[in-house]
Amino acid sequence: MIRQAPLAAAAIAAIIALLIGFAATASVEAVNFENARQESLYTDLLAELRCLVCANQSLSDSNADLAKDLRGKVRRMVADGRSREAIVDYMVERYGEFVLYRPRFSAATFFLWVAPFVLALAGFGFVAALARRKSQQVSPDPDTDARLQKARALIEDERHW
């Protein structure tokens, strides 16, 4: 029992450290706006803008310093009454299309938007071609069994000679 005490103490310390770490990363910035529309715009923008440091997290999910700065910039622009388009245009102009989770449809992003459909059509075409080839393969003659029996009978007759 005494030998297990240090192990239990280490496990408890590890759990406490994890809980403190989760509490530190779960800090939520309290933001007050004039109306619910501004608050909704702010939360929507934070969800659709990408953290440039983390790359796979939105601004609302990231705790990187750059993400905090960008959240502050978005908050100020929303509070100043800028529209969604103006804020997104500013972010794209400054950081490029990469800042958007859903890039705009343009000549530069044409392949990005069209490629999934082209690949899906190519896949369906490939499957259809395989199915057609499979159906066009030579099917066995329906009277193959009868021919085999005749051949066996001829072989048997020849053995008797």
Key descriptive features of the protein:
elongated, mainly alpha, 66% helix, 161 residues, single chain
For the sheet with most strands, the description reads: none
Q: What would you report as the Rg, rounded to the nearest angstrom?
A: 34 Å
Please tally the β strands and state the result. 0
Mean pLDDT equals 79
Tally of DSSP helical segments:
6
Low-pLDDT segments: 24-28
Helix and strand sequence: HHHHHH
- What structural class do the secondary elements suggest? mainly alpha
Q: Report the principal-axis shape.
A: elongated
Helix content: 55-70%
Proportion of residues in β-strands: under 5%
Distance between the termini: 94 Å
Outline of this structure?
This protein is mainly α and 161 residues long.
Description:
The protein has 161 residues and is an all-alpha fold. It has six helices and no strands. Residues 24-28 have low confidence and may be disordered.
Task: Please outline the helices and strands.
Elements (H helix, E strand, L loop, with lengths): L3 H22 L10 H13 L16 H15 L4 H12 L14 H27 L7 H17 L1
Helix pairs in contact: 2-3
